[in-house]
Amino acid sequence: MRPAPSLLGFALWPSLAATRSIRATTAFENKCLQFRPEGSVRNATRTELQFVKAGTRVALADNDPSCNTDGQAVTADLCRVAMSIPTSNRSSITYEMWLPETWSGRFLATGNGGIGGCVEYENLAYGTANGFATVGTNNGHNGTNGDTFYQNEDVVADFGWRSLHTSVEVGKKLAALFYSEAVSKSYFIGCSLGGRQGIHSAELFPEDFDGIVAGAPAVDFNNLYSSRARYFTITGAEGAPSFISAGTWKTTIHDEVLRQCDGLDGAMDGIIEDPTLCKFQAETLLCGTNQEGDCLSDAQVQTVTKVFSNYLWQNGSMLYPAMQPGSEILAAGGLYSGKPYGPSVGWFKFAVLEDLAWDPASFTTDDALTAGQKDPGGIRTWPSSLAAFEGRGGKILTYHGQQDQQITSFNSPRFYEHLAAGMGYVPAQMDRFYRLFRIPGMGHCNGGPGAWVVGQAGSTAARGIPYDREHNVLAAVVDWVEKGMAPEALVGTKYANDTVDSGIAYRHTHCKYPAKSTFKGGDRKPSEVDSWECL
Ligand SMILES: *[C@@H]1O[C@H](CO)[C@@H](O)[C@H](O)[C@H]1NC(C)=O
Ligand SMILES: *[C@@H]1O[C@H](CO)[C@@H](O)[C@H](O)[C@H]1NC(C)=O
Ligand SMILES: *[C@@H]1O[C@H](CO)[C@@H](O)[C@H](O)[C@H]1NC(C)=O
Ligand SMILES: *[C@@H]1O[C@H](CO)[C@@H](O)[C@H](O)[C@H]1NC(C)=O
Ligand SMILES: *[C@@H]1O[C@H](CO)[C@@H](O)[C@H](O)[C@H]1NC(C)=O
């Protein structure tokens, strides 16, 4: 924290200090309203300049309706800047920078999700609440469907890498101008597409960040989108013989998954600690003669077997890993819903095939091959080395929910092993700069029956937990970068009913890959944090 020097001498005189602090706030407000960021960013147009008081809500009336946010609560006094910044003669980004009055000297960039162009306002609020000068962008387009990728490679390039990189270059420069002091350290936080953005940045622009929090990273992006497009061709539409209703996924199949695999970790608690150990056999659910109800037809058994098997190229090599057992409760309403998966449809229609009449039911591995060969915007993100990033001291903290219903959690160990092999590293060497934490019972980026609150995002996920390296991933990466205190394990929090005000239900230790959380056994309770160890 860096209070204005003029305040320091008055700390012991409450009345005077109070007067001073009112005047200091006014001074900050004036400084904000006099800021002219557009003068320092080529061709930029300023669209907002606003002093925002802690405890108020920023109105976002212009935000694209598909982004589902028309306002953001703010807990720190800050200066909000928004600009439109051209990135080519046919593309531009919407740029937001929130500059807190109480600044730690740190910079934070935030990611995006899906194929979308939604600014993560909750993470702008989260960053500023913790003293970071924080930026976010629309990733080059508004809304969630990606139609402006069509016949515009510049919009795709913004989405693939340029929007984030531009926001970092502009952000570091503007923070220095605004505070009259250079940024001390630079960080990134994002999940899903955002996780991919963080890792891609470490690959392409190793100078941009000192520390990166990359949740459930959508690395190997084209193959991920192919695997997502494929689910509709596996399940078929509602009513097809291969289709399975949400109710059957959530009860019949999920119950059988737990029956076969919940106890593998020694605790029957409804959570599979390490789904890689679960070799689910769907045949046990095949209906017997004249049996009806809690059982599956042949075609349905095939559906289950396919989603829980690796997706292979025709030559038998891996295209993308299987979905992990345990995620079916949440995937039932999404990837297995019998409807084409929206973001995959958008990616293929607008960016890969550029065919507005494309029929998602026609998807095959030929389309997957086209996606990989075209690699729109250079988005793939599958580096076999991050030596330049590591070499300048960069750190990546990554985590993945083990019930992720959108990006199989098996892809994160796969990427870890790929990177380790490429760099010739054993885990002790990976530990120097890249640490993966598997989070049992967590869905995609958040949610689920596990202790999933680890400070990964602003809205619900960070409130109520201590902002320290044990409980909060952002605090953890900061201490790793600045104090050399590397995270060994993370303690996740589960709120009763996922509601902070209802209190903490339990805490759980999440282990650093390749270790896994192991029940100590005996008459210990699975819900107690000390009942588990990382082995
Ligand atoms: C900035 O605007 C000028 C004049 O309109 C144009 O010539 C130039 O290409 C623009 N630069 C960028 C980076 O868009
Ligand atoms: C995107 O939305 C912002 C408001 O959030 C608006 O200022 C901008 O013009 C929009 N961009 C496009 C390309 O429509
Ligand atoms: C945009 O710039 C490119 C060169 O970078 C040029 O080929 C193209 O004609 C320009 N497009 C427009 C619409 O001005
Ligand atoms: C299998 O096919 C894929 C897609 O064409 C290709 O990328 C991969 O290298 C092939 N693997 C082998 C072992 O030939
Ligand atoms: C959680 O929600 C249920 C049902 O709404 C309620 O009965 C229960 O009391 C809640 N638990 C807490 C700790 O608030």
UniProtKB/TrEMBL annotation:
<dbReference type="Pfam" id="PF07519">
    <property type="entry name" value="Tannase"/>
</dbReference>
<keyword id="KW-0732">Signal</keyword>
<keyword id="KW-0106">Calcium</keyword>
<keyword id="KW-0858">Xylan degradation</keyword>
<feature type="signal peptide">
    <location>
        <begin position="1"/>
        <end position="19"/>
    </location>
</feature>
<dbReference type="InterPro" id="IPR029058">
    <property type="entry name" value="AB_hydrolase_fold"/>
</dbReference>
<keyword id="KW-0624">Polysaccharide degradation</keyword>
<keyword id="KW-0719">Serine esterase</keyword>
<keyword id="KW-0378">Hydrolase</keyword>
<dbReference type="InterPro" id="IPR011118">
    <property type="entry name" value="Tannase/feruloyl_esterase"/>
</dbReference>
<keyword id="KW-0479">Metal-binding</keyword>
<comment type="similarity">
    <text>Belongs to the tannase family.</text>
</comment>
<keyword id="KW-0119">Carbohydrate metabolism</keyword>
<protein>
    <recommendedName>
        <fullName>Carboxylic ester hydrolase</fullName>
        <ecNumber>3.1.1.-</ecNumber>
    </recommendedName>
</protein>
<keyword id="KW-1015">Disulfide bond</keyword>
